[in-house]
């Protein structure tokens, strides 16, 4: 079927029921939906996690604050590592790590992981980390990143991982917000054959973090990097024990803070999304097992996300390890040294479950199916998608060229805030439809509301959650007012996700994208205002407005409208300077794809920038209603300028 046909064909007419063979062996059976809410989370809580002390109360819901598994004591690292070794699974591979340079691979068994986590935890202790010390982690996709996360969990030290693509300002803002005293980083990372100077960026960031006392530096590329005496410590130089008895797992309360993950909201300041210990672990372990149908003894599971985002936390580190899985971690990009890299990895390790994002699938579509055709990827038996709505053409390509028309595809909707997958198909149960996230996970209650807050049985509106779930965020770190305002105010009594959704005649949920000022670029969440403030921070910029436009590859692309100061005219140099300025302020992934220079921005009479109109211009749509504009001529002017906008493409 031609791709255009798929896009125009109502995707609802394409139905993919599970095969009888898959259903017969699936972890999740149809009756999994029948379990009452309390019973479902009670039994998963008891069975999937080893408790030092059992919980006494399932949950407490004082809107909007939920607590789960009250009274329980446990340790996340113990559940993810030690207990598997104690159960005799020490020789099972936890991670097949594949470095970006092709000759560098490591097979890390659960016994290895235990020793390495203990060593890392002892190193952290030596530089002053104890229960409650906040730690920032700024690394690439090396095994030590997972080890640092687990070491913090072992010690009861709450951590925040900052994606290695972020710039110094973004790192220092996050460290200051959380009050981080220690930073774990590495000399450099590899990206497309070039070293990325993580330690140099970390040094710049630490200058702006008065509370930072020490840094632990992992050697990766081996190139020389500056080290500050008294503050910076090479990990390999610290003489510490790797004997588990030397560093017991700290018993933590169910509701103790596990980590904070910063994500973009609708203002310039990122939100620190807080996750606690027990509910988060139960949530990610349960979803990982049922949705990915994990058979820990035989599957090789690969989530091709970055650990620096929530997907990597929940579905590379915590969920899979809690379930005793064998996973792949790949350090590099899918196009290095060539377009075959991913399929080489699938073939080499016999990957059976692959979880990735639509933007990656679209990149592979662009590169062509011949690259995957050179490899035997018949080990695959299940595919997953996350991060944005998957367009039906990409779904069909994934199904055909990667799934060999035999693998079920799970389209999983969730967020940094939700911690775990909330809407998804179950591979042996649900009839999949390309582009449709289908149903709430068992024990999850979702609904669609209209503007008036009334339930929409069939049709479009706002996606909300009606009941708490174990892995839900406990709040925005240090800003409860913003937490209440962002998620709980629009529809009192409901968690408002910020996404539009439609329920079809079968009761299945289709995600329609964000309804706020948040963009989704290659699966990265970015706020328009965050980029605007980076732009106006440039000395020559008077004003800036940013919006997303649809993009065939990245889902959304960033368009910036910029008014320069004085009489300065636009130039290609200025365009590059501004794009680089955003890269320096936030990170290269946040660079605008287009910049439109304009003498004025369209505003309402009260001075609010009309992003809806800018979006229309960016999308080349007919201009919408402009009657509330202070100067409606501006937008027409803009539209003609946009047509000749300076772009790097
Ligand atoms: C979007 C990533 C449609 C959505 C796990 C959400 C999706 C935001 C899907 C969260 C999906 C994620 N279908 N949209 N399967 N998965 N989204 O916090 O807009 O980085 O609100 O978490 O991504 O992005 P975040």
Overall spatial form: globular
Query: What's the tally of helices?
Result: 19
Low-confidence stretches: 1-9
Largest sheet: 7 strands, mixed
Bound ligands, each once: 5'-O-[(S)-ethoxy(hydroxy)phosphoryl]adenosine
The CATH fourth-level homologous superfamily of the domain at 515-647: ANL, C-terminal domain
CATH architecture of the domain at 515-647: 2-Layer Sandwich
> Could you tell me the strand content as a percent range?
15-25%
Average pLDDT metric: 93
Biggest sheet: strand arrangement: 5-4-17-16-18-19-20
SS elements, strand count: 33
Question: Structural class of the secondary elements?
Answer: alpha/beta
Distance between the termini: 30 Å
State the helicity in percent bands. 25-40%
CATH topology of the domain at 515-647: GMP Synthetase, Chain A, domain 3
CATH level 1 name of the domain at 515-647: Alpha Beta
Descriptive keywords:
binds 5'-O-[(S)-ethoxy(hydroxy)phosphoryl]adenosine; alpha/beta; 24% strand; GMP Synthetase, Chain A, domain 3; seven-stranded mixed beta sheet; 649 residues; 33 strands; disordered N terminus
Please write out the topology.
Layout: H1 3-8, H2 20-25, H3 37-48, E1 57-62, E2 65-70, E3 73-74, H4 76-89, E4 93-98, E5 105-109, H5 110-126, E6 135-138, H6 143-155, E7 159-161, H7 168-178, E8 182-186, E9 189-191, E10 194-196, H8 198-207, E11 214-218, E12 232-234, E13 252-253, E14 257-263, E15 271-276, H9 278-291, E16 300-303, H10 310-322, E17 326-330, H11 341-349, E18 353-356, H12 358-367, H13 370-373, E19 382-386, H14 392-402, E20 409-412, E21 423-424, E22 439-440, E23 446-449, E24 459-465, E25 475-476, H15 480-488, E26 495-503, E27 509-514, E28 518-521, E29 524-527, H16 528-536, E30 541-551, E31 555-564, H17 572-585, E32 594-597, H18 611-618, H19 633-643, E33 646-647
Parallel strand pairs: 4-17, 6-7, 6-8, 8-11, 11-12, 16-17, 16-18, 18-19, 19-20, 31-32
Antiparallel strand pairs: 1-2, 3-13, 4-5, 9-10, 14-15, 15-25, 21-22, 23-24, 24-26, 26-27, 28-29, 30-31, 32-33
């Amino acid at each position: 079927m031609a791709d255009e046909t798929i896009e125009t064909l109502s995707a609802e007419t394409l139905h993919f029921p599970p095969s009888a063979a898959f259903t017969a062996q699936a972890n999740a059976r149809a009756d999994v939906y029948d379990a009452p809410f309390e019973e479902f989370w009670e039994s998963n809580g008891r069975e999937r996690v080893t408790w030092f002390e059992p919980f006494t109360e399932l949950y407490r819901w004082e809107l909007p604050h939920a607590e789960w598994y009250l009274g329980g004591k446990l340790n996340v690292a113990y559940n993810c590592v030690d207990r598997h070794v104690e159960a005799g699974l020490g020789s099972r591979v936890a991670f097949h790590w594949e470095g970006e340079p092709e000759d560098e691979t490591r097979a890390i068994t659960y016994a290895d992981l235990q020793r390495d986590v203990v060593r890392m935890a002892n190193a952290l202790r030596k530089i002053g980390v104890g229960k409650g010390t906040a730690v920032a982690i700024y690394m690439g996709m090396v095994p030590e990143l997972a080890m640092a996360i687990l070491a913090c969990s072992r010690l009861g030290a709450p951590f925040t991982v900052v994606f290695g693509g972020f710039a110094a300002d973004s790192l220092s803002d996050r460290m200051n917000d959380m009050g981080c005293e220690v930073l774990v980083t590495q000399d450099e990372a590899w990206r497309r054959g070039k070293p990325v100077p993580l330690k140099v960026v970390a040094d710049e960031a630490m200058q702006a973090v008065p509370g930072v006392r020490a840094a632990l530096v992992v050697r990766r590329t081996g190139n020389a990097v500056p080290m500050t005496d008294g503050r910076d410590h090479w990990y390999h130089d610290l003489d510490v024990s790797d004997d588990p008895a030397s560093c017991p797992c700290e018993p933590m309360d169910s509701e103790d803070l596990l980590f904070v993950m910063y994500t973009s909201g609708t203002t310039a300041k990122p939100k620190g999304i807080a996750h606690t210990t027990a509910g988060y672990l139960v949530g990610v372990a349960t979803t990982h097992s049922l949705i990915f149908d994990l058979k820990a003894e035989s599957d090789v599971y690969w989530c091709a996300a970055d650990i620096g985002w929530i997907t990597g936390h929940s579905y590379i580190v915590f969920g899979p390890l809690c379930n005793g899985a064998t996973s792949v971690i790949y350090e590099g990009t899918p196009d290095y040294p060539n377009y075959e890299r991913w399929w080489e990895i699938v073939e080499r390790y016999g990957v059976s479950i692959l979880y990735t994002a639509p933007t990656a699938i679209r990149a592979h579509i662009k590169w062509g199916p011949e690259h995957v055709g050179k490899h035997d990827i018949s080990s695959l038996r299940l595919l997953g998608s996350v991060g944005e709505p998957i367009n039906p053409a990409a779904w069909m390509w994934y199904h055909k060229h990667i799934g060999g028309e035999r693998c079920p595809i799970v389209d999983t909707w969730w967020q940094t805030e939700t911690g775990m997958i909330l809407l998804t198909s179950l591979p042996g149960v649900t009839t999949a439809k390309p582009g449709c996230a289908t149903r709430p996970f068992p024990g999850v209650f979702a609904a669609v509301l209209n503007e008036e807050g009334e339930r929409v049985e069939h049709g479009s509106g706002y996606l909300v959650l009606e009941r708490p779930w174990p892995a839900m965020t406990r709040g925005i770190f240090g800003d409860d007012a913003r937490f209440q305002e962002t998620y709980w105010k629009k529809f009192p009594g409901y968690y408002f996700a910020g996404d539009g959704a439609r329920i079809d005649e079968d009761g299945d949920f289709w995600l329609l994208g964000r309804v706020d000022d948040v963009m989704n670029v290659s699966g990265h969440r970015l706020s328009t205002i965050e980029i605007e403030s980076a732009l106006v921070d440039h000395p020559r910029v008077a004003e800036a407005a940013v919006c997303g436009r649809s993009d065939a590859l990245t889902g959304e692309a960033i368009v910036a409208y910029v008014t320069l100061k004085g009489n300065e005219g636009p130039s290609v140099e200025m365009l590059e300077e501004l794009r680089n300025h955003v890269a320096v302020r936030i990170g290269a992934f946040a660079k605008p794809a287009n910049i439109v220079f304009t003498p004025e921005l369209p505003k309402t009479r009260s001075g609010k920038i009309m992003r809806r109109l800018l979006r229309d211009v960016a999308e080349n749509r007919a201009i919408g209603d402009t009657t509330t504009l202070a100067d409606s001529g501006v937008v027409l002017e803009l539209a003609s300028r946009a047509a000749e906008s300076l772009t790097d493409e």
